[in-house]
Design a protein that fits this description.
Elements lengths: L1 H25 L47 E6 H6 L5 H5 L5 E6 L2 E6 L2 E2 L5 E3 L2 E2 L11 E8 L13 E7 L16
Amino acid sequence: MKISFHLALLPTLIIASFPVAAADTQDNGEHYTATLPTVSVVGQSDTSVLKGYINYDEAAVTRNGQLIKETPQTIDTLNIQKNKNYGTNDLSSILEGNAGIDAAYDMRGESIFLRGFQADASDIYRDGVRESGQVRRSTANIERVEILKGPSSVLYGRTNGGGVINMVSKYANFKQSRNIGAVYG
């Protein structure tokens, strides 16, 4: 019983000795002063279309020029540049993380489902014009992908009730830009 009582007091004695050790180090009379160099931070707003991720206010997929926040439809706008930074270049890879969309690719072609409806043949558009074929769609000259979900997609006529995917092409800005990258692993 006495051994356990002494062991119980041991942590208390150790903690109580810390202020005494700290007081001993302050009594030396030596005071150290650290002087840090001045740090100046300079920044500027990044308004270039090529450099940042863009929050688009209106979608071309509605065909009426209305703002997205005023449209009573579910519209998702995906910025392609963000996906290219991660190394994804084809449409099915870009659509994988979006809610309500199931996308896959195998040797037969792309398989895209919007809210349970297959959207391979007649529900994929480029700049509002239907794109036919089962080929793997590249996003090399695409600025953004707009997805109009739900039955509002009948605006395009020949579609299922799941939605429409519209790929909006890039426009030339006549500014020189260079890009270099490396991927390892």
